[in-house]
């Protein structure tokens, strides 16, 4: 049984438009390496300097891997890996670029 | 004490209730912090009051001032209530496709509403609000995602209340939006009972909501500090709706959809405690009641129908 990896809309250019692909590996790092072999270029969008990129969240069975061992988080054969961009409750994608509210003069 | 000089003084001090039916065992217990019992019916009364009082204290807000906030939700309603009591003018910028119930509630509490284009959603509302703020430098935007007083309300209120009511608490589970609740309660327990684990429940929306142009354009609120939490669960609308229905069926609590997501994470934590053979007292937040969400379709029909109805909606 392969591990299911769910791909967000903006990374589906790497997976030929597929919303979910199969991968293998015993850890998130191995799953991403296998993903890279099948879909070259995707790893660089997820990982930077050996860590998950700031605006990327990766979940193994709905739990954020930053709190379960990061890229070394174990992945079981029956696991689902979900990749999502970080958004706020209000889906404000360019808020970060705008910075906090200006203080009154 | 249950007597107050005015409504604002009654913010906080919410009940903590045991959940004998939904708790998985006698040793792993769930407790609900009923934030829907705040004056305007949501946990946001705490943050709105704290942000306004902080701005008063540092001189940004003075009598007759206008408060501006891009919000269509609970924060706007809470700010409008406090602004009314304190004599400020309240202006909310909200997308024109927001529900009529929200508009009526805001108007009832005296807020003025400036519509922003539907396309672009909250993004656009923030952009419009920032433009308006630039034109009116005397107006005050409190900006809940980056305002330390938001987390401060939970550091000085929610956290201490929980510890006083349940000294044996082992876990706190809250929703992750502005991150104010988790940052404030998390910091309080880090300082006063560091063995308490802080668990975040993050709503997972439909694809439309994540339609960013680029993976580098995500958003992490300025308040967020990863070191304040110990686990973070992503919860989709199906699980949130399932749990919100369980909560009313088993315990009689009628909560909003985001509370369903938080309960789901609390039960995931409870299952881990049972597997580990540990006893646990898990406190989770009931953010608001279900009233404002009846029109979403979450409370009727099958789970499939509710899940379809919530697709593309910001349900938490």
UniProtKB/TrEMBL annotation, chain A:
Gene3D superfamilies: 3.10.20.30. This is MoaD/ThiS family protein. It comes from Aeromicrobium alkaliterrae.
UniProtKB/TrEMBL annotation, chain B:
Keywords: Amino-acid biosynthesis, Cysteine biosynthesis, Pyridoxal phosphate, Transferase. InterPro entries: Cys_synth (IPR005856), Cys_Synth/Cystath_Beta-Synth (IPR050214), P-phosphate_BS (IPR001216), Ser/Thr_deHydtase_PyrdxlP-BS (IPR000634), TrpB-like_PALP (IPR001926), TrpB-like_PALP_sf (IPR036052). Residues 10-288 form the Tryptophan synthase beta chain-like PALP domain. PROSITE patterns: CYS_SYNTHASE (PS00901), DEHYDRATASE_SER_THR (PS00165). Its cofactor is pyridoxal 5'-phosphate. Belongs to the cysteine synthase/cystathionine beta-synthase family. This is Cysteine synthase.
